[in-house]
Structure formats: structure tokens, C-alpha cells
Amino acid sequence: MSSILKIDRLSHRYGASWAIRDINMEINQTGVVGLLGSNGAGKSTTMNIMCGVLNQTEGHVYIDGVDVREHPEQAKKNIGFLPQNPPVYTDLTVDEYLTYTAELRLIEKSVRQKAVAEAKERCGISHFSSRLIGNLSGGYRQRVGIAQAIIHKPKLVVMDEPTNGLDPNQLIEVRKLIREIAKEHTVLLSSHVLSEVHLLCREVVMIEGGRMIFSDSMDAFNNYVQPHSVLLRMENPPPEAELKAIAGVTRVELLSDRQIRIYFDGSRDITERIIASSVQNGWRLQEIALDKSLLDDIFKQLSNQSHQ
Ligand SMILES: Nc1ncnc2c1ncn2[C@@H]1O[C@H](COP(=O)(O)OP(=O)(O)OP(=O)(O)O)[C@@H](O)[C@H]1O
């Protein structure tokens, strides 16, 4: 059986400069896969090629076994695309716009209205059928954008930064909708926000500077995001050796006479052991805080590893 998406040594350059180099990816299941990368990493370029909007310089993209460049019409039957700026027409009503997109997707006239009704229902916009898109909030406009992406029931739905610019309530709602959609479709979404990918995705692909630097499950990715150091403030800190003796501690860094950073090997109960030792030995612990890895640090760490 063919993969839902297979990307094989994909590269693209604009003029003389390469935007992406040698991207490889394979997805075989439903669920959400995140394409994570900072601004300018190459996410939109990859997605635009995947969806047949841009012709690559080198490499291949197969959707359900069909080469997007060689057989675009056939491949696009199984792709839904929500670009970074949703292609919604603000002077059309929701019904007019979705009927138009159903037509573009070559859905037969006899079943077009049914397809529009189903897409509206799934995206929670049935009650806005005759509302002008220009009069909808950002969150609802995004739902209309998602509705056009699933109207022809594609196997793969590609969403370029789908939650960008939404307010916190809209964010929660749109995330919920993406999770729903991902029960039946494979969703590939891009983001430059680590927490977004964390909340939604089963797998993560990271690109930086146009190169793929990580591709694995969310659990594997978490190993990089989990804190590996803790910041302490103590009124009566012990000699370094006593802190090093706590199980799991790998390194101790004295920041000032009361502030200390402790590096540990990933065991989650380290804070409990530090607190217990402090109470037992009278170190008078005042503050303890886990250092979360910053996205920039993770990018750096992974980039270094992939270049070694
Ligand atoms: N049409 C274009 N012409 C020339 N260079 C481009 C063009 N589009 C993108 N680039 C360059 O290609 C690189 C990758 O851009 P791309 O838009 O794919 O990144 P991105 O990860 O989607 O970033 P963002 O989140 O900012 O959209 C960047 O250096 C960008 O400046």
C-alpha cells in the first residue's frame, strides 16, 4: 500500500539561494504531524510544493503514491490545503464560497450541496451559511478555510500556520477542530510555535535553514524539551560536592553565593530529592524552578547534532 505522503530528497531554490535542501518525509497514518521551524526555515516552501502550488527544483512528492508534479490533477484529489493566508473571498457568503470551491474540486453537481453541508457541519459553521465571509471573526474565517480544505474528503490536509493570529479563545476552538479533522484525515501543519506543536501533534518534523534536523515521535522530541536543569536559591548552600552527591545530578554551576544551577540526567523526581536534602541538611531552600529549554536552544542543539 502507498504512503499517504512521501517526500523524497526535495530541494528548492529561489534564484541562486536554496530555500530547502534534501527534505525526506513519509506519513502512513491519520493524526496530526507538525512541521516545526523558525521564520524563514522553509516550511511554506515545502508545503507549497507538496500541494502543487510551486514546482520544486529537485526531488519528488507523492500523495497516496501519485507524483504531484507528474500527475497534479490526480494527486490533488487527495490533498486539501489551507495556505498561510486562507484563500477566502470576503465578498461571498459562506455557502457561495464553499459551493465555488466544491466546483473547483470537481465535485459533481448532484452531490455538491451535500458536500458543502457536510463540510460546514464538521467545521461548526452551518449557522453562518448566508453570512458574508468578510463579516466573520478571524476564528470563523479560519473554519471556512478548513472547510474548503476538507470538502472533497482528501486523505491529506496541509495547513500552513493555521492558528497564527487567532485570539486565545479562537485558538482553543480551532485546535479542537483540527484534532477532530485528524481523526479521519492526515493533517500536516506548520508552526513556529513549539507549544502549538506540543499540544496538537503525534509526530514532529523540524526544519531549520532549509534542512531537516529532526523527524520522530512527539515522545522522542520531548526528550529535548524536557528540562535538564533546575535553578535554586538557598540561604545556606552546602559545598558543591554535597549537591553533586544527590542522585541524578550531573553538574553544579555556582551563579552567585546563593544562586545555583543544577544539571540532571532527566529523572523527573529531581526536585523532590533536592527539597528533601535541603530540609534534612538545613540548606534553607527559598526558590526552585525547572529551566525549560527554549525553542532556539533546541534548534541549536538539533542543528549541531545533525551536522556532526
Ligand atoms: N518567492 C520567494 N522568492 C525568493 N525567496 C523566497 C521566496 N519565498 C521564500 N523565500 C525565501 O526562502 C526561505 C524559506 O522561506 P519560507 O517562506 O518557505 O519559510 P517559512 O518557514 O515558511 O517561514 P515563515 O514562517 O516566515 O513563512 C526564506 O529564506 C525566504 O526568504
Automatic annotation (TrEMBL):
It comes from the Bacteria. Signal peptide: none annotated. This is ABC transporter ATP-binding protein. Keywords: ATP-binding, Nucleotide-binding, Transport. The keyword NAD does not apply. SUPFAM superfamilies: P-loop containing nucleoside triphosphate hydrolases (SSF52540). Residues 5-234 form the ABC transporter domain. InterPro entries: AAA+_ATPase, ABC_transporter-like_ATP-bd, P-loop_NTPase. Belongs to the ABC transporter superfamily. One of its GO terms (molecular function) is ATP binding.
